[in-house]
Amino acid sequence: MTKEKEDLKKLLEESEAKKNEYFAGWQREKADFINYKQKELARLQELLISVREGFALEIIPVIDNFSLAEKTIPEAEKGSNSIKGLILIKKQLEGVLKSLEIEEINTLNQKFDPSLHEAMEEINGEEGMIIEEVEKGYKTKDKVIRPAKVKIGKGNNN
């Protein structure tokens, strides 16, 4: 019986060692899977941001053209239904950008910031301040999609 007990003890030790090996392997695989899920989520978020920015870059020129057209409409015609409809379409497109968390960059009477603005020209005015907006700029919370093109003041002493 002693031989049987020794065999059983040896078998139990081997089983315990295999159990520990399998458990450790399972823990590693679980950690690897959690890491994979986190990396995949980050990759998908980056992809979503890229798609959102690409879409914005496609729609922004359309909004620009609506704005240019709106500026050329004579005041007497702004009350017509067709003009109101076009302006409503422009507002809807702007709403789409807002829903994507894309907003216009503030420009007028702001201090020039090269990370947000692109200086197109220097004109008379308060030095370093934005005097005129040439083209609207857009950004998300943490990234500039398109810098605002602006004219900045060079001071009145020139």
Tell me about this structure.
The structure is a single chain. The protein has helices at 2-72, 81-99; strands at 103-104, 117-127, 130-135, 138-139, 144-146, 148-153. The protein is elongated. The N and C termini lie far apart (110 Å). The chain folds into two domains: 1-100, no CATH class; 102-158, Head domain of nucleotide exchange factor GrpE (Nucleotide Exchange Factor Grpe, Chain A, domain 2), CATH 2.30.22.10. It is α+β, with helices and mostly antiparallel strands and 158 residues long. The model has no long low-confidence stretch (mean pLDDT 92). It has two helices and six strands. The longest helix is centred in the N-terminal third of the chain and has 71 residues, at 2-72. The strands form two sheets. The chain has a three-stranded antiparallel beta sheet, covered by helices on one side. A three-stranded mixed beta sheet has the order 2-6-3, with no helix packed on it. Helices cover 57% and strands 19% of the residues. A hairpin with a 4-residue loop joins strand 4 (138-139) and strand 5.
